Amino acid sequence: MTIKGLSKTIEILKNQIDEIAWYDGDWFMEESEPIYGLAFIAFQNYINGSIKDFADSLKGKESFYKIEQNPNSSKKSKIELIIALANYAKHKDEGTPHKGTKDILEHFELTYSDVIYLDKSPIFQGIALLNEEGDLFQIKNIVTNWREYLWSRNE
C-alpha cells in the first residue's frame, strides 16, 4: 500500500508538468526526490524485516544484502544499492554519508556531495540504475523477488 500511495503521488506531480505552465522538470525533481527517498526507506524496512523473518536477527544483515539471484557484472547487488539510497535519503543533510553507504554510492558512481542539480542526486541516478522509468513497482519487484530467492535457496 505504501508504494502504491507514493507512486500515485509521483504520478500526480508528473502530470503537473503538462497542466501547470511554470511547473517544470526541476520543480518535479525537487518535490519528488523526498517521495522517492521515502520509497527507498520503505524498501529498506521490508528488506530488513525479511532478513529478520529469515534469520531471526539482523546480525550480519550486510551479507544478506549481497545475495542476488542473477548477479550482474557489478560486485555490488541491487539490494545494496537500495539500502544505500535509503540511508542517503535519511541522512543526506548530515554531510558525508557513513562509510558503508559512501562505498556503495561510489561503487555505482553516484554523486553524493555538493549536489547542485537534482538530476545528479544519488536518488535519481540510483533510480535510473534500478529502473529507467522510475517505476516504484518495478523496484518493488526487485525487492520481493530477492525475498523469494532468499527463502528458496534454503528449501
Can you put this structure into words, describing what you see?
With 155 residues, the protein is mainly alpha-helical. The chain has one domain (33-152). Helices cover 66% and strands 0% of the residues. The chain has seven helices and no strands. It has helices at residues 2-19, 25-55, 61-65, 78-91, 99-107, 122-130, 136-152. Helix 1 runs antiparallel to helix 2. The longest helix has 31 residues, at 25-55. The model has no long low-confidence stretch (mean pLDDT 88).
Q: Mean pLDDT score, rounded?
A: 88
Stretches where pLDDT is under 50 for at least 5 consecutive residues are none
The count of helical stretches stands at 7
How many strand segments? 0
Q: In total, how many domains does the architecture comprise?
A: 1
Radius of gyration: 16 Å
The backbone outline, from C-alpha atoms, is globular
Distance between the termini: 29 Å
Helix-strand string: HHHHHHH
Largest sheet: none
Backbone structural class: mainly alpha
Strand content: under 5%
- Which bin fits the share of residues in helices? 55-70%
What does the secondary structure layout of this molecule look like, with pairings?
Layout: H1 2-19, H2 25-55, H3 61-65, H4 78-91, H5 99-107, H6 122-130, H7 136-152
Helix pairs in contact: 1-2, 2-4, 2-7, 4-5, 4-6
